[in-house]
Amino acid sequence: MKLQNSLNFSGGPGALPESVLLLAQQAMLEVPELGLSVLGISHRSDWFASVITETENNIRALLGLPRDYHVLLLQGGATQQFSMVPMLLMRAQAQAAQYLHTGYWSGKALPEARLQGPIDVVWSGASRDFKSLPTSADLNFAADAPYLHYVSNETVEGLQFHRVLGRDDVPRVCDMSSDFLSRPCEAERFSLIYAHAQKNLGPAGVTVVLLRDALLQDAPSNLPCFLDYRQQAQAHSNLNTPPVFSIYVTLLVTRWLLHEIGGLAKMAHINQAKADLLYQAIDSSAGFYQGRAAAQDRSLMNVVFNLATPELERAFLRQSLAAGFSGLAGHRAIGGIRASIYNALTLPAAQALAEFMDDFQRQNPA
Ligand SMILES: *Cc1c(COP(=O)(O)O)cnc(C)c1O
Fold this sequence. Notes:
Helix content is 35%, strand content 14%. By secondary structure, the protein is an alpha/beta fold. The strands form three sheets. The chain has a seven-stranded mixed sheet with strand order 1-9-8-7-4-2-3, with helices on both faces. A three-stranded antiparallel sheet has the order 10-11-12, covered by helices on one side. α4 links the parallel β2 and β3 (119-124). The longest helix is centred in the C-terminal third of the chain and has 20 residues, at 264-283. The protein is globular. Residues 12, 77-79, 105, 151, 155, 175, 177-178, 196, 199 line the site of pyridoxal-5'-phosphate.
């Protein structure tokens, strides 16, 4: 069976733009301006320092990020951030940090935070099987919490917040791992944003953290260096050997966003068009496809749906693979179908999947 990168709907690591893959391939042999393979260059070289600086500057430019934010390129994935955030912000705090439990990934952050101190789960979608997000009326944010933590896009369930949550006087912390740089995000309203690269902006191995400098003023001084944002910032993301290749490819993706796509407003426009095609296919199927997320909370990145029976879902996955599509199986936690339409997945690819869905329905009348 031959699969196609252009039809890769993987939930993560996700597809990357073809132009980026070609440049990465070339850099594997030799980086054009250097003549060396990207896999054999010192992380202490001037060249790599310029890679870090340009990646950081590109992210700043894409988001219009104020100067008082650090842009860090760390390891350990989003999972390490589940611990680093409370290690920085919760120590010696009597008040509980506030957390939203809106799905699989926000749930994974809870036990890690509890290891560091008290947390208050402001709202949980568990009783409604994580099929919708809270409205503003459902939420009561405390003025004295050390911070609020939430996930902007629940990758597994296909739920996405289309507004910023919380209070302006309490630090907002957001896991944007699956929708970072997919749309403008009002970064200046958050104290800390983190996103690993492998869903929307590069290969696995690097995690982008944006954090406001003021957060570091009271940072504890007894943290292991690797888990200490202050030391990571002082070392300019080069505290120990960083994942050079992953960071280089992330740089290529930020260049692609800036120069080929033309910025985040344009990216958001394309992403909306892709999502519209697939939700339209679901909504016009007379119930043959059942969207999982409540309509107002639908994700523009992960389109999650079911068919009437597990057998029909298996047939859908089998036939879609035969047609060259891949990555459409739902997350192992909930099954069903999930089409992840991250930045690199093109509009024609979303169109092809919508057409496949129509064809499949015609061939399998209820
Ligand atoms: C995939 C995902 C994670 C897990 O990230 P790792 O890098 O594997 O630790 C965390 N949060 C969200 C929102 C995700 O989509």
